[in-house]
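ESCALATION

Customer reports they have been waiting on this structure for their group meeting. Please prioritize. Original submission:
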Amino acid sequence: MPNRNWYETSEDMLMPLPLTEEEINQTMENLTEEVVNDNARGRYPSITLPNNTSITVIPIIPGITLYGYIRFLNASPAEQRVDIYVNGRKVADSLLYREFTEYMKVFPGWYRIAVYKAGTITNPLTVTTLRVQANHIITMAVIGLTGEISTQAINDSRRWLNRNRAYVRFVQLSPNAPTMDAYWDDALVLAELNYQDVSRYLQTTAGSHNLKMRDSLSGANLVESPDVSVENGKAYTIYIVGDINDRTGLQIIVPLEGATYLDFGD
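Update from on-call: job pushed to the front of the queue and completed.
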């Protein structure tokens, strides 16, 4: 066993250990309240385990231990703040609309993800299961309007990044926006982007760019960002969020993707 002082371990991680498929099925039978089982150190909600249950501590050894990364985005304009629980452990506290968590290391396996109104542990807004694979980077977005909240797992590519080019892609997460086209410096670069669509990556030059999202049918401007700054050798995802019927309308979020800087120790 490696010296505990030399390695990060599963005890240092915010994300819990994965559940088995059987344990996932058990947890899905009780969705009304988030119950944390102290015997399992908060990793197994709604499951009765014997008092002598021990939790394996896994060392993260560069190049040997398999893991991925996950972060959460609150993209629901109907829920200004949400709490997110994974396998009974709170991993996001009062996550604001349009905000992301940091990327968190996660081991391959099954996870139960429950989203609640901030400060509550009953009547989840949505509950889902997610299977994480090794060496994957995932953004888990909370999406939808009142009464229709759900989640969408978006894989962030680990593609090779040319140091002389920047990379952008588009993700449409506004549930009531029309089909839209993307104009990059007034040039049409993507057509007919629908709700929950994830585009391919586009290469572009470094610097500041003008972005317009236009209605595919009428050509009307839906939302514009006149100064989208990108750098060579980096990848970005352009998220379109918001309620088109609300006075604030649509918004654009352009975070740097984890593929640019996350390390898997290989």
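Sent to customer with the following note: The chain has two domains: 8-156, 166-260.
Escalation resolved.
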